[in-house]
Write a structure and sequence with these properties.
By secondary structure, the protein is an all-beta fold. Helix content is about 0%, strand content about 45%.
Length: about 100
């Protein structure tokens, strides 16, 4: 289990700040990956679509891969079935179903 919090502060000149931070469990999930071609070459600028799977498939987010073929979705809800579809030049490259834990 991971935990994380963030906060911002801007002390004025000569000010001393004392704080207490209590971490709460982080229940969010993330999906990251890399798209490769059939020739094992990283695919840049591919469209990656993230859907919430189920009876009513719902588009959650869309990303384009970076120069190294990487994509990232997050934070997303855990314990949910997702589906990813990847397209490059109007051609579907890969379709994946992912379950987060």
């Amino acid at each position: 289990m991971s935990a994380g919090e963030k906060f911002y502060f801007k002390p004025t000149a000569g000010e001393h700040i004392e704080t207490t931070v209590s971490l709460t469990p982080d229940t969010s999930a993330a999906i990251l990956g890399t798209v490769f071609s059939a020739k094992d070459v990283r695919v840049s600028n591919a469209l990656v679509l993230l859907f919430r799977a189920g009876e009513e498939k719902k588009l959650i987010d869309r990303q384009f891969t970076d120069d190294e073929g990487h994509f990232f979705f997050g934070p997303i809800e855990g314990d949910v079935m997702y589906q990813i579809k990847i397209y490059k030049n109007h051609v579907k490259i890969r379709e994946l179903e992912i379950v987060t834990e």
